[in-house]
């Protein structure tokens, strides 16, 4: 059983972080961050399925798949280094080389990540200068992790980090993470940018398997705008400093680790959904008793991804037909005559659709329920035993405002 | 070769129409319309692929597939008769029965269609009363068709109709149509509601084949908000009064008819996209030299469907990375190093991306091009010979406003 604690990427043993103003694109704010492990780590990652992959995604896939170990992650906000051709990839190499030289580690143990405008080249001199500052500033302690979580933000309104303790094989293990989200969020294999550190000792292949499985029900179940980014990257580093007996099989230790990691991923994913661009509330869809797990995921995602559903949630409009409509075009097969649909929040619970027939409900109560800061559409399919939950946010004027002129 | 003429569904020989205030949901506006043929017609249709099909869709599929002929279409706006269970289907039957009795025709030759709020039952007494008025008011002439096109609107800001003349086998043939769109527009097999009438003489199976093929490149290539409606219906009636030699094979007559029908469908589809809820402009994506036709369709649709692309078009923001990002997650495979991307409008043409590399372009010129009322993103894939065009609109504050409180 895990316990939630303070902190983020520097909560686990042996991790340091830093954040600096490099002037990549923003003025007067920190826009580069580094996470560093004092000893070599095994690492795993999941990446965007977008055919147009950003240069750092290509770089990190190479490191995750082929490097013996990882030591550092360097992140910049402001420019995404996507759609930047060969030069973009060379800039990943140059960034990693600068980190490697300053830290006296191998360039193939350096992960890089970028977020921001697509189709602009990075100012590489500023990046390299930023690396020097990051290495000089790196420090252990929770404050350093908090600064890093702030530096990776773009249109995010709050920074997002979390950490948990869990006992594994009699040893205290810590897992901490941070992420940024906000727009172009419809992850497919993982989220915009997420970074998790842990001191657990675990084999690389099991770390990757745990991460890939958990992502399916956490980061891959959120959406802000249906746009799967070119840069989606989720990385985890495990440095073994907890000194637990190395996890090499799917035993009880593995299960304990997975449970704690699941919490970290779900927490960060939900934070990202609730802080979607322009969002005023977290919009959750829970589908139960579906025929298959995949159906449950498909149906719940379709509800939170629908522009019409999202606009109705913004307006506290009990227009439940839009949720059924979204389920209907999701690709999952079902009979509307089996379906029950409920609104849920801290303000109560209300059934609105009963196996094919609309229910005449109390509009005032519905509006009150939908006015809460976290709203759930609960759907009982009455077709099987599988369930899934997806998270999104409402669609607001501010989403349009933010994205009608994002670059300026 | 066809000629565009005045009018809509009453342009062809032997068609009458009417529109009345039935008080279904709106006040002080016409909300029911009828199209009637003085002689029996062959008919064809394409319908929503949404699993949650509205009652009138189920009714019309039955008529299109199994009835010997069709005589009338009755349409109401305000309530969609979707998610309404058995009672909803019975109301289709009752509506058709009322029409059949008044017109002394078979109930199985009556098509019905509804658009509006999902999950509310129709006030059937008002519907039946409306039918009596529609039958009493039916009249030939272009004015009657225009009134019908107005009565089927919901959040549409303009009514949409078109007609063409084409000579087939030495006889003048007319095709006229009307449609409504605006929100919940992401047709998959056809559009929200579209009705086409023609006096051509053609075999039913060929009429269906022509319609189904044309829909793939016209109505199925538009999107407003990515939400495939429960009610999408496109119907065509052909009454043979043009007295051309009946088209029974894919000869020159068939090609002439298809060419004219294609124009009617494309015209109506584009009108629907440009009049999307809250839209300020028509947003077109043209993809050329793709590997396959399906790739070209997928890529062009992804561009106009992306919220981020749509918001950028609204803001005249030359953020071309969003178009590439949307292409990347569309499902089509390609190499960004082959791709060229251009902005086009009445204000000029500008290349912004050249085979993997962003081009440094004149921002002022880009903003001017994107400020036009019709904007095209032109993409050359350099991979094959197939092309497709998709149409959508920008994403604006008004889209959110309209949909945050649609029901009130």
Write the layout of secondary structure elements.
2 copies of one chain form a homodimer.
Chain A: E1 2-5, E2 15-20, E3 32-47, H1 55-66, E4 70-79, H2 85-103, E5 110-117, H3 124-137, H4 142-151, E6 160-168, E7 171-180, E8 193-198, H5 204-217, E9 233-238, H6 252-274, E10 282-290, H7 293-305, H8 307-314, H9 321-329, E11 340-345, E12 348-354, E13 357-358, H10 363-370, E14 374-380, E15 386-393, H11 397-404
Parallel strand pairs in A: 4-5, 8-9, 10-14
Antiparallel strand pairs in A: 1-6, 2-3, 3-4, 3-9, 6-7, 7-8, 10-15, 11-12, 11-14, 12-13
Describe the protein:
- The structure is a homodimer.
- By secondary structure, chain A is α+β, with helices and mostly antiparallel strands.
- Chain A folds into two domains: about 1-275, L-amino peptidase D-ALA esterase/amidase (4-Layer Sandwich), CATH 3.60.70; about 280-405, ArgJ beta chain, C-terminal domain (Ubiquitin-like (UB roll), Roll).
- Helices cover about 35% and strands about 30% of the residues of chain A.
- The first copy, chain A, is built from eleven helices and 15 strands.
- The first copy, chain A, has helices at about 55-65, 85-105, 125-135, 140-150, 205-215, 250-275, 295-305, 305-315, 320-330, 365-370, 395-405; strands at about 1-5, 15-20, 30-45, 70-80, 110-115, 160-170, 170-180, 195-200, 235-240, 280-290, 340-345, 350-355, 355-360, 375-380, 385-395.
- In chain A, the strands form two sheets. In chain A, strands 1, 2, 3, 4, 5, 6, 7, 8 and 9 form a nine-stranded mixed beta sheet that branches.
- In chain A, a hairpin with a 2-residue loop joins strand 6 and strand 7.
- In chain A, helix 1 crosses helix 2 and helix 2 packs parallel to helix 3.
- The longest helix of chain A has 23 residues, at about 250-275.
- Chain A is globular.
- At the A-B interface, helix 2, helix 8, helix 9, strand 13 and helix 11 of A face helix 2, helix 8, helix 9, strand 13 and helix 11 of B.
């Amino acid at each position: 059983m895990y316990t939630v604690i303070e902190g983020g990427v520097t909560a686990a043993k042996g991790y340091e972080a830093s954040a600096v103003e490099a002037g990549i694109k923003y003025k007067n704010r920190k826009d580069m961050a580094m996470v560093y492990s004092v000893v070599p780590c095994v690492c795993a990652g999941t990446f965007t399925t977008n055919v147009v992959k950003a240069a750092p995604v290509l770089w990190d896939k190479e490191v995750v798949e082929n490097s013996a170990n990882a030591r550092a992650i360097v992140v910049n906000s402001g420019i995404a280094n996507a759609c930047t051709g060969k030069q973009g990839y060379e800039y990943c190499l140059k960034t990693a080389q600068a980190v490697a030289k300053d830290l006296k580690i191998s360039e193939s143990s350096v992960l890089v990540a970028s977020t921001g405008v697509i189709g602009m080249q990075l100012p590489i001199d500023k990046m390299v200068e930023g690396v020097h500052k990051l290495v000089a500033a790196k420090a252990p302690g929770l404050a350093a992790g908090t600064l890093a979580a702030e530096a990776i933000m773009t249109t995010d309104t709050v920074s997002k980090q979390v950490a948990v303790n869990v006992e594994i094989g009699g040893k205290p293990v810590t897992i901490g993470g941070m992420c940024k989200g906000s727009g172009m969020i419809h992850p497919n294999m993982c989220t915009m940018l997420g970074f998790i550190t842990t001191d657990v000792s675990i084999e690389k292949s099991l770390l990757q398997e745990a991460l890939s499985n958990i992502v399916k029900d956490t980061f891959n179940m959120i959406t802000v705008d249906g746009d799967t980014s070119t840069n989606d990257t989720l990385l985890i580093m495990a440095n073994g400093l907890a000194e637990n007996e190395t996890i090499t099989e799917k035993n009880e230790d593995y299960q304990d680790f997975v449970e704690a990691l699941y919490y970290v991923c779900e927490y960060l994913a939900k934070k990202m959904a609730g802080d979607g661009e322009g969002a005023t509330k977290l919009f959750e869809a829970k589908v139960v008793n579906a025929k298959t797990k995949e159906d449950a995921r498909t149906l719940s995602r379709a509800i939170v991804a629908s522009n019409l559903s999202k606009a109705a949630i913004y307006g506290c409009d009990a227009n439940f037909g839009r949720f059924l409509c979204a389920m209907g075009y999701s690709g999952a097969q079902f009979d509307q005559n089996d379906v029950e649909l409920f609104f849920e929040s801290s303000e109560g619970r209300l059934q609105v659709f009963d196996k094919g027939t609309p229910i005449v409900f109390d509009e005032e109560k519905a509006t009150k329920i939908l006015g809460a800061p976290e709203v759930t559409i609960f759907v009982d399919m009455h077709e099987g035993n599988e369930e899934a939950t997806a998270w999104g946010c409402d669609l607001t004027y501010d989403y349009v405002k933010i994205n009608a002129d994002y670059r300026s």
